[in-house]
Predict the structure of DNA-binding transcriptional regulator, MarR family.
Amino acid sequence: MPLMTNEDRDRLGFLIHDAARLIRRRFEAKASGSGLSAAQWRLLVRVAKEPGVPQARLAELLEIEPISVSRLVDRMEDGGWIERRSDAADRRVRLIFPTDKSREAYGKVKSMVGEVYEAALSGLSPEARQATIDGLKAIINNLSDGETPQDCAGRGEKAA
């Protein structure tokens, strides 16, 4: 297999960044009617996938400061999207759970995400699609520094 040229190496980061930015922008355009910000969508998806996640863990997963997560959770709780519960083992820990409203929205967002991903991969053969996914997984694995795949998968998610 040929080595990467300097030009390819210089472009890799920009290409990955641009692809992620455009996917995120397309999703945000589709989801704009929901009344939720991109940060709120990311939180909603995390909570839907991991009900009962500790609030402090959400800050880690979303890569934002705990105070920012607290404010985000406050707004989403006020809107009926999520609910906080105390951890039975440690009253200082606040667990975040989805509401019926957020579970319904999550079902819709999965459909929107599928449309965005299909548009992104349009024109690629099934083999090229799989190679793209395999390549991105390898990059994530190579750079994860001991993080679990679930931790890495949440970065840049949009939403699902």
In short: Confidence is low (pLDDT under 50) at residues 151-160. Strands lie at 53-54, 82-86, 94-98. The CA atoms of residues 48 and 154 lie 13 Å apart. The helical segments are 6-31, 38-49, 55-62, 66-78, 100-121, 126-143, 149-153.
